[in-house]
Amino acid sequence: MVPVQGIGSLLFFILSFEFTASVESNVVNLGEPFNIEVKITGENIKEEPVPPDLPEFTLSGRSTYTSSQITIINGKMEKSSTISYVFTYIPKKAGDFEIPPFTLNYKGKTYYTNKINLTVVGEKKEKKEIKQKGSIFIETIVSRNNVYEGEGIMVEYKLFTRRRITGLDFSKRPDFPNFWKDEIYVPKEVSFKREIVNGIEYYTMTLYKVLLYPLRSGNLTIPEIGLYVQVPSSDFFDFFGSTYEILSEEKSVNVKPLPSPKPEGFCGGVGNFKTRIYFEKDTVLSGVGTNLVFEVEGSGNVRFITPPEIKGDNEINVYKPEEQVNIKSKTDIEKGVKRFKYLVVPLKDGFKSLKSFRFSYFDPKKNIYVVDTIKVPQLIVIPGEMKEEKEIKRIGKDIYFIKTDFKLKDYKFLNKFFYALTFFLTIFPLIGLFYFIENTRRMKDIGYSRLKNLPKITKIGLKKLKIAMKKKDDKSFFDQLHKLLLDFVKHRYNIESYGITIDELKENMIKKGIEKRYVDEFAEILNLCNLRRYSPVSENADIERIFKKTKEILNVLS
Length: 558
Prior knowledge:
This protein is of the alpha+beta class and about 550 residues long. The chain is built from 9 helices and 30 strands. Strands 21, 23, 24, 25, 26, 28 and 29 form a 7-stranded mixed β-sheet that branches. Pfam families: BatD.
């Protein structure tokens, strides 16, 4: 007969000792990490479980957690502990598998866990449901998935983890061929913050944030982003831990085309805007130019609004506008102002008025086109001869005060004075005439004016680069280099280089007849500027080599 006390001890052992294995889901994705949790509950357990041989899976990491509990049987207090071993595997191929039992040698006996049936799928369509359950995953957050052409979409790639991470590196960066993009946030360092999601605590980090504008209608894909994640190992001799790759899921957005037909004066604007028009100088001399400024301010795709056509006539010339854009806030609905400066040159005096024009845009909230008729303010033109008459009066006044009782004492002096006076009276009008012609041409021909200013701008830009080099200030160097490159293209080839993408800039340069290899070299330096200005840099760049290469390409293009 077994004593009652012995029965109690045996019962305690049976109830208190457990050795089980489990997974969070029986369906996992090919190439994606998943966890097998092995729990051992007992008293004074020092042995560790032995995993089975799994040739179709890669063991990428292991971690351990411990908890304790106290049980009282027949007045006797017994203490037991539960140790959880988490084994992280990555499947090598798709299919149905049976995970054999884990084994444990405990008090001279060998124990086995239960078997686990597992299905590995290779299709991404099942990824969303499964990845959300893992301890580490990347979420693609899209601000809106149903938009019109011209509406912005903010996309944020965010890392969620419940495990300690010792290293991060990108394995795949997203490409957006069907969108115009503006990078809003690129982290300069690894920094996590605590968040509670559906009652579960995570540590999160924004990996990348970008503002997208669709270039066409239809069902467009937001691509995935990939990350190599390093987690610590529980093995004392494993100093580097385990590294595996995780991917976000692709998402799609529905882009609706704008209603047809588009009204007269449609500028490409989608949002809510107000306009303003004015002359910088409303009173000018005939033949002298002034700027007619047309402003569009509001919320929406401000940067993509195109200039309206303002026509001149036989009494006033209107030239292509210069564009300036100022974005005040960067969200999926941007706020800002865009200015178009038209050079206007009146040819005759009087009160001059240009014809009114239509300006229209699409309001997505009301689902209608808004059409405004813009009236151009009146320009007062004073005859150009008035300036000459004033000069004549002034000269006449000066002549009036010239003394008439001048007596010559030396004929040789008179001869030298006569020749000198003749020289100055000849050369000064020629210089004045040249200056007048040059100034008039610069006012009428913006491209010519910019080309004339090119040497000065290039010289100043290179000087600022040298100063940044001496100070070893990489940030200032790449900021100044970025400005110099855009100013060079703007003044050398009369291309509006600000506010456009590098691909658009390359296309415009090729249209100007520049060889593609030189365009590619120029774009490579510009891309490097953007990379250094907005991405974290762990060490100093070779700015001397970049400076030398920049001078070489500018000399070729000059």
